[in-house]
Inverse folding.
C-alpha cells in the first residue's frame, strides 16, 4: 500500500490554501504552530493568517468574533491543548451559538509519543462529542483530510478534526465522496472491525493475521464520529454477528462507546468487543509503537484479545 508523501495537516492546509487564495474571508488562526504548507499560506496571503500565540482560550473567542463578523475561520492547534484548555469557550462560543468554525487538532492520541501525557490526546473524542452541534472527524489518510476541507467549507456547524502527525498509507482517492462518514475497506463475513484514524491501518494488519485462524474479517473505517450515519452503518454490518471497535483513544466515550450506544438505543442485536486505551494514564515516553504495546493496542495484543473473546 502506498504511503502518503505528506502529513495530513499539510494535505489539509494545502487544499484550504486553494480556497483561501480565491476567498479573502477565509482566516487561519494558529497558536505558534508550524507546518511546511503553512509557510506558503503565511507568506502568500498574510492578511488571512493570524498567529495568536500560545493562548488557546483566547484563540477560540477571537475566532468566534471573526466568524460573527462574516469570516470563515479555521483554528490550528495541538489536539490535547485545544480540546482541554478551552472546553468552556468551545461549549459557549462555538457550540451554544452554533458558530461554523473548524478546529484542526494535530497530534491525535499518541502522535506526540515522546512528549508524555500532557500531549497525549486520549480523551478528545469523548470530550468533544458531549457538546451539541459539534461535528467530529477522524481521518485515516491524507486524502480524507484533503476531502474534509470541502466538507468544512459547506458546513454551518462547528467542526473538530483530529489529524495524525504520521504519513499513513493511502486508503482513498482524492475525488472520493466523504459525505457518508465511513467506508468498508475490506470485506469479510465472520467478524467486523470498526476502526478510526491510525487504528484503521492496524485493523487491516490484524485482519490479515486472523486469516490464519480461518476468520474472514471485514474492516470499516469510520472517519466521521459525530454524527454517525446510523442507518447506513447498521445496514453495512447487518449480516455479521460479532463486532469489534478499535481505537487509539480512551475506552471511555470514544468509538467503542459510540457504537455501544447505537446498539443499545436502536436495539441492534450484535456481540460487541471494545478495544482501546484502558481507563488510566500512561506515564511513559518513547516511540508510538512502544506506547501501543504499553497500552495493549498493538497488533499482537489485539489479536490475542480477539481470539480470547471469540
Amino acid at each position: 500500500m502506498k504511503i502518503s508523501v505528506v502529513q495530513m495537516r499539510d494535505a489539509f492546509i494545502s487544499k484550504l490554501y486553494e480556497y483561501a487564495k480565491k476567498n479573502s474571508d477565509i482566516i487561519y488562526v494558529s497558536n505558534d504552530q508550524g507546518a511546511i504548507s503553512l509557510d506558503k499560506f503565511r507568506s502568500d496571503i498574510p492578511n488571512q493568517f493570524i498567529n495568536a500565540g500560545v493562548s488557546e482560550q483566547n484563540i477560540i473567542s477571537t475566532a468566534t468574533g471573526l466568524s460573527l463578523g462574516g469570516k470563515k475561520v479555521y483554528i490550528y492547534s495541538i489536539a490535547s491543548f485545544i480540546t482541554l484548555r478551552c472546553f468552556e469557550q468551545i461549549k459557549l462560543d462555538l457550540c451554544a451559538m452554533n458558530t461554523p468554525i473548524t478546529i484542526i487538532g494535530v497530534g491525535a492520541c499518541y502522535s506526540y509519543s515522546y512528549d508524555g501525557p500532557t500531549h497525549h490526546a486520549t480523551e478528545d473524542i469523548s470530550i468533544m462529542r458531549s457538546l451539541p452541534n459539534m461535528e467530529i472527524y477522524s481521518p485515516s489518510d491524507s486524502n480524507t483530510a484533503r476531502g474534509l476541507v470541502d466538507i468544512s467549507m459547506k458546513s454551518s456547524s462547528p467542526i473538530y478534526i483530529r489529524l495524525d502527525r504520521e504519513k499513513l498509507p493511502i486508503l482513498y482517492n482524492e475525488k472520493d465522496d466523504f459525505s457518508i462518514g465511513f467506508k468498508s475497506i475490506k470485506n469479510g463475513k465472520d467478524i467486523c472491525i470498526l476502526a478510526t484514524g491510525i487504528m484503521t491501518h492496524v485493523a487491516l494488519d490484524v485482519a490479515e493475521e486472523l486469516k490464519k485462524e480461518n476468520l474472514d474479517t471485514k474492516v470499516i473505517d469510520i472517519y466521521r464520529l459525530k454524527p454517525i450515519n446510523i442507518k447506513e452503518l447498521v445496514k453495512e454490518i447487518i449480516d455479521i454477528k460479532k463486532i469489534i471497535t478499535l481505537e487509539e483513544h480512551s475506552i471511555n466515550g470514544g468509538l467503542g462507546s459510540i457504537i455501544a450506544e447505537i446498539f443499545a438505543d436502536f436495539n441492534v442485536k450484535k456481540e460487541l468487543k471494545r478495544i482501546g486505551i484502558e481507563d488510566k494514564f500512561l506515564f511513559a515516553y518513547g516511540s508510538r509503537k512502544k506506547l501501543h504495546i504499553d497500552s495493549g493496542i498493538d497488533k499482537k495484543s489485539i489479536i490475542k484479545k480477539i481470539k480470547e473473546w471469540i
User: Anything to note?
Assistant: Residues 8-22 form the longest helix (15 residues). The mean pLDDT is 94. The CA atoms of residues 91 and 131 lie 6 Å apart. The radius of gyration is 19 Å.
